[in-house]
Amino acid sequence: MKVGIIGAGQLGRMLALAGHPLGLDFVFVDTSADAPGARVGALIPGRFDDPAVLGRLAEASDIVTFDVENVPEEAAWTVAERVPFLPPPPALGAGQDRLAEKRLFRSLDIPVADYGPVDGPDDLAAALERVGLPAVLKTRRLGYDGRGQQMLQHPGDVEGAWERLGGVPAILERFVRFDRELSLVGVRSVSGETAFYPLSENTHAGGILRRTRAPWEDPALYDLAVGHLSSLMDHLAYAGVLTVEFFAVGKTLYANEMAPRVHNSGHWTIEGAATSQFENHLRAILDLPLGSTEPLGHSGMVNFISRMPAARDVLAIPHAHLHDYVKAPRPGRKLGHCTVVARTPEARDGALAQVEHLISES
Amino acid sequence: MKVGIIGAGQLGRMLALAGHPLGLDFVFVDTSADAPGARVGALIPGRFDDPAVLGRLAEASDIVTFDVENVPEEAAWTVAERVPFLPPPPALGAGQDRLAEKRLFRSLDIPVADYGPVDGPDDLAAALERVGLPAVLKTRRLGYDGRGQQMLQHPGDVEGAWERLGGVPAILERFVRFDRELSLVGVRSVSGETAFYPLSENTHAGGILRRTRAPWEDPALYDLAVGHLSSLMDHLAYAGVLTVEFFAVGKTLYANEMAPRVHNSGHWTIEGAATSQFENHLRAILDLPLGSTEPLGHSGMVNFISRMPAARDVLAIPHAHLHDYVKAPRPGRKLGHCTVVARTPEARDGALAQVEHLISES
């Protein structure tokens, strides 16, 4: 069975590493011959919106999935019309436009922060009236890891904000003073079996995920999150891993965004859960029985951004597991991560502090 | 960092799958282009005793290790004279001759069953006098998975036994009426750090490992086994994973054989221990800090021999993890394995029984 993956980044790489033991083989589409996935599967070089390249991928694959969110839905359909393409193209499309995403959440009674569309300078004033300050102005499309966002703190920040964002279709969102950021990673198979990992607690800085801890124990919020994610999965006739990031405020979860794929806040599941999100994504799209999502202890994950620490230093930390994506360093680029799994939250947090100390030294 | 591996079988494949997250890259030597390892690393096609092929491997690698035990020590030295080769060639050689192996064990005060060398028909009579019946006549070299062995139960089995074995240098060993078969997988890094997994309890049939359960809890035997393995590691100035298979009789452990590499009875460590034997082998030969060998529950491993069950059936069993080596089926060939990890020995044994039921149906 050959699985085609659009994008050979670290997510594709970790999918392949999880899938080889299942007897699966992998073929990637990526512009870069030294992309992280290219060492653990075959590579079709090219752009993921090039119909000829996608045709070759469909030809070479029994089923196709993706590791990048910005595959145009149209391109996904050209593949889906030839071989199974999962998660389904409409789910891919649903996460690509922040306005459509908010409307989808609302239609399913999933709470979202106040927002307003901003297609021009006049819209911004109208949206501000409804949303108030502080607020975040975000491009509707192609924003990730904090790119394409502007924080509007004071009235003085408003003038020219939309133009500074590039004058593209945008959305203004109320800035939520959250108690914490939580995410839920869930999985639904082709035949509708579902499983959910425990809640993850996330820390972002500069719009990029820095740290995740799991399980975050809050049964009421967990049930709420599972309800929201289930609604989305059912609505989208979903297959694969689906993640929603929430802002927790008291007993409410505001959906911030969804990702129709394996997610950075679920990387801890490789060592910290009975079955990783990567293996479960593959089981789900191939309609195999899902694996247990039970946590194996208390896990923490730290992203390595801009530079990698020395492997020797990471591996000397108790409970530490290293993931080096073998990417060339670049400012703001995710190059790897480290997961710690310990028997107690205290031991986990102690090990996490050691990892964070390591990368704060530069 | 590129790791060269002589042999691209399932052991090499699992080494590579464990090593990619550490940022390592792999190159294999194997005669078969569709060997299990060839999907997760580069392949230099050729025989592992061909100096030209080994020269290309040394050229392409920063360090070389092996997944097959029968690499000639001479061939290992030709690599070791160019790049680091670990475990060290003498350790490789020590495990290749059953007579030399027995003598090594004895010299280190590690108990072994009575034995005698058999280089011809006359030697067999002399050895039988010392060893008695029942006994096992084994070729000194190149035997594995039960090949090259003859059980001598009755006096009538003796006549012509050596000739039936091929008339090659052999060894007669007393058949040990063991309480159980145990193995210890340990690891020693270049700088001498050591770590030991819990004891594994093994079941063989037809000379092939069928099932492993771990941890086998017996603190006295564990200490004994760690002592024996430590003696061997120190004597061999060892680096990498080293395994010894024992026959347990009362409070004594008789060493049966050693394997200077990752071992089938340690496959459960992939899901069942904090760090797998494969990752620790790589950490050890690269002189990185070793990872924790702590068990994560109660594990069981069943080998899939001659034919693979359907993935769907294996994955439907609670706690089951599938490892398909993507090898062509052949009678007696190890094609894959399944590991179950549960919270209790009872749950583990229940899941194991389901796996064994699955493969007994054919």
Describe this structure in words.
The structure is a homodimer of 362-residue chains. Chain A is α+β, with helices and mostly antiparallel strands. Chain A is 31% helix and 28% strand. The first copy, chain A, has 12 helices and 17 strands. Chain A has helices spanning 10-19, 51-60, 73-80, 89-94, 98-107, 121-131, 161-164, 219-236, 269-272, 277-285, 311-315, 345-360; strands at residues 2-6, 25-30, 42-45, 63-66, 115-118, 135-139, 149-152, 170-174, 180-188, 194-196, 200-205, 208-214, 240-249, 252-259, 298-305, 320-324, 334-342. In chain A, the strands form 3 sheets. In chain A, strands 9, 10, 11, 12, 13, 14, 15, 16 and 17 form a 9-stranded antiparallel sheet that branches. In chain A, strand 1, helix 1 (10-19) and strand 2 form a beta-alpha-beta unit. In chain A, helix 1 (10-19) packs across helix 10 (277-285) and helix 2 runs parallel beside helix 3 (73-80). The longest helix of chain A is centred in the middle third of the chain and has 18 residues, at 219-236. Chain A is globular and about 55 Å long. Chain A starts with a strand and ends with a helix. The relative contact order of chain A is 0.12. The model of chain A has no long low-confidence stretch (mean pLDDT 95). At the A-B interface, helix 11 and strand 16 of A face helix 11 and strand 16 of B.
